[in-house]
Amino acid sequence: MKYYTYSSKLFFTVSFTFFLFSLTAQTNIVDSLKTAATYTSDKKEIAETYNKISDQYLDIDFTIARKYADSAISIGKEIHNFKIVSDGYVNHANSYFFQCNFDSTLIYFKKSYLQIIKSGNQNEIAASLNRLGLIYEAKSDFGKASEYYYKSLKIYEKAKNKKGMADINNNLGVIYDDHGKAKESLKYYETSLALYKEINDEKGIANIYNNLASYYTFEKPDTALMFIRKAIYILVKRNNKYDAGTAYYNASILFEKINKGDSARIYLDSALIFFEQIENKHGIANIYNQEAKLFSADNRFDEAINLLFKSLELRKEVGNLLAESETLFQISDTYKKSHDFEKALEFYETYIELRDSVINKTTQTKISELNIKYETDKKDTQINLLKKDAEIKKSHNLFLNFLIITLLLIMILLFFIIRVKTKLLKSQKTSYEQQEKVNSLLLQKQEIERDLLEKEVKNQHEINLLQKNKFDAELEHSRRELITSTMHLLNKNKILISIKDIIEEIPGNNSTDNRTHREITKIIDNSINLDSDWEQFKLHFESVNTGFFDELLKRYNELSQTDLRVCAYLRINLSYKEIAQMMNISLAGVHKRLYRLRKKMNLDSDINIAKFMTEL
After folding, report:
1. Average pLDDT taken over every residue of the chain
2. Which of 54, 246, 542, 562 could cross-link with 69 by S-S, CB 3.0 to 4.6 Å?
3. Most confident of 119-123, 384-388, 561-565
4. Dihedral of CA 122/128/131/132: which sign?
5. Which of 25-34, 115-124, 346-355, 571-580 has the highest mean pLDDT?
């Protein structure tokens, strides 16, 4: 799984443990931004702050991120600020991109491009073209993706924007890698890495390390492992869920290649957690494919096939045809290993058909033509520059003659300076050797920290399992307490009702003047309807059915406390007779309450109200 980049939106990984702490810091940032928005009346500042809040919420809640983006867009249109409107559309697009809704992503990237082109800002226009190339690549339209990338690269080169040039070279490397053009792909990756190092962009460097790890996975696993560890070491400080999942997924593939199945599964579980949190179907499908490989390696072919079909379904929803063809090939290969050659051939033919439709000669020719056109334009520009240089040199020949004489005098001076410099270089060489020793010690320290990080990830995985078991035990305990409490109340009420019935049958007790009888009956009725009994039952009930009453009142705000009691008894499957005993009313009274309850909730008579409560 490769990384692609576009200006102002680079994605990077975090360690699972560090992410929990950084999420708290991110929440603090959001709170600070919200506070800042309330202390200014400048609409431009408010809109820019809303876009920043939206960007932060992309790692927390996509729905909220879109709401803040909409607010920024609305204000941006009002004050005619194209950059603010464009950024709002970009945040909208990113929220859909992370969920692999590429059609919606493309719509908002196009809206962003139409806005930013009005501004005339060349760097922003190039960034927008890059984003369009990115989404067309995700949709497997590689010809159009390459077209946008080369357009963007020309603008960045003209503006001498090394960051943008590095981003585009990385993205072109991914396209050539996907098309099996290893030599061209490596050239673009190395160019991108050199540019990132030149501007000291740690994020970009880690990004390329991840892609190089993916590039070397099958041919040089040890080299790939070195790159992925370097990337994780850099990205451990970041807190983006998408790239956290991607980095762990890449690490899992590498550990699987070097036959470290346990480590592969640990990294794969961590990756799945991040992808499920942001509902990234493409990432989840990749996890299924990798898990299927592990199952297939253990000869658990049925489980592998089930996972691959789940992956195929997600691939079709996302619309990434290249990834879909790769999954079809893996299904064919798994059937082949399980000796079901008929199905293996069937899916292989489907794979070939889809692969050829995606990576066809027309697409490859278009990409090559774009590359040739780009290189030709570049050479034409260089030729024009050389011509201008020649004209300048011709007009300055006399001046150059004067310079030659001056340079001869300078060279004599330099001879004496060099002698002094030679002594200094010897001293610097000694210093350099000492620095090399320090660097060696630092490298050893990094290796130790890497091992500690791997152990920490494994320990966190075990802690998560223990916490889950603890939660299940506590829930089971609460269920038992609810059952015990309910049975206690039923038995108590049943006994009290029986005593009341016996008293009623004693001769003379029906007399209206029998004060003792009335007092005893009143005490029994009060004991049956004790509020404390209900509160105790309610406490146990809510510990098992969290939010049940809140949801009822949210949907049906006319319900009384008595209605809520009836709903709770229905929820735990008490019979009508048991409900009558719990509430000290007759069966007819129960039916009346249920009739009124249906009326308040607008339920048809053919709906089983008890089943309705249990499914709520």
Report:
1. 80
2. 54
3. 561-565
4. negative
5. 571-580
Residue that has been written with the tokens 């270089």 in this structure: 425
Beta bridge partners of 14: 237
236 is written with which tokens? Answer: 């451990």
Q: What backbone phi and psi angles, to 5 degrees, belong to 477?
A: -60, -40
303: tokens are 């489980």
CA distances 467 to 19, 462, 475, Å, are: 18, 9, 12
The pLDDT assigned to 247 comes to: 76
Structure-token pair, residue 469? 């078991």
Residue range 341-358, pLDDT digits in tens? 888 888 888 888 887 777
Place of tokens 């809510």: 542
Tokens coding 383: 């030729």
- How far is it, in rounded angstroms, from Cα 240 to Cα 15? 10
Give the three-class secondary structure for 397: helix
329 dihedral zone (left: phi>0; alpha: psi -120 to 50; beta): alpha
Judged against a pLDDT cut of 50, whether residue 15 lies above it is answered with: no
> What 3-state DSSP class applies to 11?
coil
Structure tokens at 604: 């048809």
Of 90, 81, 125, 127, nearest in space to 111 by CA: 90
Confidence of residue 599 (pLDDT cuts 50, 70, 90): very high
Find out whether 211 and 12 touch, Cβ atoms under 8 Å: no
pLDDT confidence of residue 240: 61
E strands, 265-336, in order: none
pLDDT digit string, tens, across residues 293-305 = 888 888 889 998 9
Confidence of residue 572 (pLDDT cuts 50, 70, 90): very high
Grouping H, G, I as helix, E, B as strand and the rest as coil, residue 14 is: strand
74-79 mean pLDDT: 90
Residue 284 one-letter amino acid: I
Cβ contact 185:163 at 8 Å: no
263 and 455 in contact (C-beta within 8 Å)?
Answer: no
Q: What pairs with residue 237 in β-bridges?
A: 14
Q: Is 275 exposed, middle or buried (0-12, 13-18, 19+ CB in 10 A)?
A: buried
Q: According to the model, what pLDDT value does residue 20 have?
A: 44
**End-to-end CA separation in angstroms for the chain:** 40
Q: Which two tokens stand for residue 294?
A: 């592990």
Torsion of CA 144, 146, 149, 153, to 10 degrees: -140
**pLDDT digits over 362-374, tens only?**
455 545 555 545 5
Distance CA 178, CA 322 (A): 9
Tokens of 104: 């919606």
CA 590 to each of CA 33, 135, 349, 578: distance values in angstroms, whole numbers, following the listed order:
55, 61, 66, 10
